[in-house]
Structure formats: structure tokens, C-alpha cells
Amino acid sequence: xxxxxxxxxxxxTLRNSRGGNVPNLLNVATDIQEFGAEGITxxxxxxxRHIKYQDARDLKPIVTTEYNIEGNPIKSFIDLVLxxxxxxxxxxxxxxxxxxxxxxxxxxxxxxxxxxVIGEFKQNGIRTSIFIDTDTKLIEAAxxxxxDRIELYTEEFATQFDLGNKNAVKPYTEAAxxxxxxxxxxxxxxxxxxxxxxxxxxxxxxxxxxxxxHALIAESLYLGLENVVKMYLHRxx
Length: 237
Known about the structure:
Layout: E1 3-7, H1 9-16, H2 25-34, E2 39-42, H3 53-59, E3 66-71, H4 75-84, E4 88-91, H5 111-123, E5 127-132, H6 136-143, E6 149-153, H7 155-162, H8 170-181, E7 185-189, H9 197-203, E8 207-212, H10 214-223, H11 225-236
Helix pairs in contact: 6-8, 10-11
């Protein structure tokens, strides 16, 4: 069964917009897990515009499911992950000023760097994942970095699915097959929603985990957080 990890960045964004501690990030993380989600994801950025580095520390005892920290492995991020020791670290090559993640790793160009960083995380017992596009050569190179998993960057699929192009899932299916043959676990995330998640799941073999934030929180404004978490879980069965 594919696990649902809920990205709570948007909860932190709402909290930060007024200062103070409403909504309470830790309470929301606790509730999401009680609603059935199998993981919590955060993506702290250097400017701390949503998740703060202290949030990552404070969430550690709260997250009793899988704890996934995403981010660009700059020194401050590496130090944070080694301190917190989450279940999984997902490496994302986002620029400092990026609004959201918009590309996967060039695992050929950055292979030696990724090998070094991944080696350090794995020595500390942290599962590693690389945010990546569906290019076969990049996936083959990802396997050589020592990563445990890849996270397929799904924005293109989601965009095309909204336009009625269901064939857009085919590169992701092929990428998943190749990754599995190479011994890589398969995660996915970015713009997955209640509208497309079941179709995506049905077409991606060996899909271990999806990380969903923006759409899930937006849908919850209308349908309620508990309802939406359970709707995702149903579609992923």
C-alpha cells in the first residue's frame, strides 16, 4: 500500500502570516496522524518563510509515523537533518528564492556531491531520497549515488492530467519500472491532488509514498482536514 505523507508547510505559512502560534503546527501534525496519515513532511527553506528550523526540531517527538524532511542540502540544512535524524531526507535542488520546487536533480552533473551527502546521511541511519524527473539516464545515475529512493517530480503529469491528457503518466510508469529494477524505492510528489491521485497510483508500480501538501490543505478548506486525509487514503488503497 502506498503511504500518504502530508506536507504541512502551508500550515506554517498561515501561522507566520499573523505571527503567534495559530494554527498550532504541532497540534495539526498530531491530528493529521490521528486521521490516518502515515507520515509528515516538511520543507524548511533558508529564509524560514514557512517551516522554521526550530519547527523541525519541535516536530521530532510529535511525529510518530514517518518523518520526512525535504530541502536543498546546503550546510545549514545538512546540519539540521543530522541533528533531528528524521526517518527520511529528500534532497531537492531548489534555489534559495524559489517559490516552490521546480526541477529535479541532474544526478549526472552532481553525482559526486550527492554521493558524499547521501553517504553522510546513511551513516546516521537516515533513509535518503532524490527529487528527480523521469529521464532514464538521470534515474540510472541516481542509483549510483547510493540513494535509497527517488521522488518523482509530478508537476508535468498533474498539468497534463488537468488538460485531459492521461497519456502523460506513461513516462512516470516507465521511470518507476526502471527505478525498481535498479533497486530504488519510489516516492512521488508535487501537484498531486484528489482529482489525479487515484489514477496516478493505479499507473505507478511499486509506489511506496506520496508527499502532498498544497492541494491537500487547499481541499481541506472546503471539505475539512480529517475528511480530506481519509479521502486520500481511500484513493491510495
